[in-house]
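Researcher: Sit down with what I've pasted below and flag anything odd:
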Amino acid sequence: MVLKPIKRQKVWQQVEKQIKDLIINNKLKIGDKLPSEKELAEKLKVGRRSVREALHS
């Protein structure tokens, strides 16, 4: 049996993954605008800095 180690992710990495998932699942399409940093932070219940880091990664 081969097990992969569990990796801890930083908050901004989790935010980045959720945004990527929206794109992959066609919930966010070409030309769509993302909500503001403030709105994303409120919806995801994270700090704006985490959202900013995710968007700049």
